Amino acid sequence: AVSHSGKQQSESEALLRRLLDEQRQSSIKEQASQQKALADMGEELKKARAELLTLHQELSAAKAALKLAAPKEKKPAPPSKNKLTLSGDPNVPVPEQVAEALRSNASRVLDLFRSWDANGDGEISRKEFHKSIPALGLDVAKSDIDALFEQWDSDGGGSLAYKELRKILNTRPAKKMALSGEGSIVDQLSDALKSNASRVFALFQSWDQDGDGEISRKEFHRAMPALGFDVPKADIDALFNRWDTDGGGSLAYRELKKLLTPGAPKRGNAPNGLKKVGNAMAAVSGMTATDNSKSH
Alpha-carbon distance 11 to 3, whole Å? Predict the structure, then answer.
């Protein structure tokens, strides 16, 4: 029995040693595998750093090349010591005072814009127009500058062609129209436009950039201050709606020409003759309907 027990103990110890040896070998292999993975990661990191350094160098070289290739930006001309001034007339809107000041100094204004035209496109943006006013010594509210810009930017494109600005600055504004002071503002406005039909039609034609022969509501609104009328928007809308009988939101030039012709009837109100015919037809229709109901 003692011999058998000793034999079992020896086998157990051998088994234990074998298990410990296997665990040790497995641990060594796992450790070696981890070390190899760390070494591989270190190599990948070195490669990534090298690639990043190369990209950084290429980017720096590209920036330097672009800087050398780009044309040098011209600095805006400094404001002149001889500042422009407004008339200060309380009866004249500020945008018109600014326009008059710019016209009176047309050569200076044109020289200023020419010095700012770095890309040579011959266009004056809204931003450049805003910058020019204080540069010329005028302290004017942004809303007034916008109002003048929009009046001169007839096509609404957001920029003024240099040639067109030169034409505007060298052209004296036409005499303003005035309302009669008799009747409703809408009727007065209608009569004033008819009395100056040629000017009105010429203005709309000059704004018809796409040649569609149509006057939009927005163009109709812009025309009133351009013609010298200080009229509430509601009255301008009322006249537009009166003439735009189909509610399409625009007026055809051909139709406007008829409306502005002396003696033309007011749109939106049928002539008396037509009204009488319409009333007679309605009466006949009513009588026919009554007879039909009686017969049934």
Answer: 13
From the list 212, 213, 237, the residue with the least C-alpha distance to 224 is 237
Last residue of a domain, one of 119, 143, 169: 169
Q: What is the pLDDT of residues 249-287, one digit of tens each?
A: 988 888 888 888 765 444 444 333 333 334 444 443 444
Per the structure, the complete domain to which residue 99 belongs is given by 94-169
Helices (H) and strands (E) in the chain, counts: 12, 4
3-state secondary structure of 216: strand
Contact 140, 94 (CB under 8 A): yes
Distance from C-alpha of 228 to C-alpha of 192, rounded to nearest angstrom: 11
Cα distance between residue 39 and residue 218, in whole Å: 73
Look at the chain and report how many structural domains it folds into. 3
The answer to the question of residue 286 being in a domain is no
255 in the same domain as 198: yes
Q: Which of 109, 140, 169 is the last residue of a domain?
A: 169
pLDDT in tens, 63-111: 888 888 766 655 554 544 567 888 887 756 787 788 888 888 888 888 8
